[in-house]
Request: fold
Amino acid sequence: MNTRRTLGQFLYGTLFLVGIPGLLVWWAEATEAVVPLPPLQSTWAGLALTAAGVMLIVAGMGTLMVHGRGLPMNAYPPPAYVRQGIYRLTPHPIYLGFWLGCVGVALWSGSASGLWLISPMVALGLAALVLGYERLDLRQRFGHEALHKPSISLPRAVAHRPSGWDRLSVYLLVLIPWAIAFEAVFALGVPRDAVIAYFPFEQRWPVLQWTEAIYASTYVFVLATPLILQTSTALRRFAVTGLIATAAVTLIYLTVPLVAPPRPFVADTFLGRLLMLERASANTVAAFPAFHLIWSLLSAEAWSTRSRAWATVGWLWAALIAVSCLTTGMHALVDLVAAAVAYLVLRQYRVIGRFA
Reply:
């Protein structure tokens, strides 16, 4: 019996340490010619992500072996539940590390298939494994003990004041992934079948350089929101809606070829030059719907949970940002309409979820 168990553990470990990585490499090479998206190559970024992934995997496996008194294998799970070490920060360091390694290798090798096909499929597969099997298995074997909240996780829907880890988690799990998704879409460039989103009359609107101060304040508005919220429930709603918005709007960016080339102007002021700098890092694509406005509306709604005064400031700020999207020439009118509609739909995610 022990021999069969040992053989099973050896084969299981070989499959996940050698077989699956090798299969993914073969899959990436076999599909390289059929992935039409541009490859991205960065040796240093690839190596950094791969190294971070390996460290997470080693830390996760080591912690399971020491504190779980077993091997990191679903088929032969450790007998003790683990919440020490790296598992205090994140519940799935091995899976997170493996996915980071996939992205890192794709960037290091410049593989378009590895980056745009294999890595997303790996993420979906790992999510399915966790949600469809592992989480249920842990609850069956360890009961309420398996419901512990790691430090880096979404806030819980409770009326208590958010902890520092709750606030930090929103930056790490929501805002940074949004920035990565946005930059990934930007890196794809303008689609071949792109359609200009401007109406003819919009092309004649002047660019008001001074309104760049309002447009750029979006980052201050959004980044300040996790810090000023007073209840964990409000922070969780902001985070969950932001995550859903990131997924849904990124899909729109990838499938709807509407673009908004910034309206031209002569930069003769400091704010004008700042506007030109912002255009160099984010223009034309990823504009429909306008995420500047979506995040502003989500932030205003979150601010309104504090008091009437905070609500007034938040909604006024969001309205000014909406106007600045037009006066800076960064967005078309249809971008703002789509953003408002997207916000109204996304904020009802609970209702939509019940009918899905």
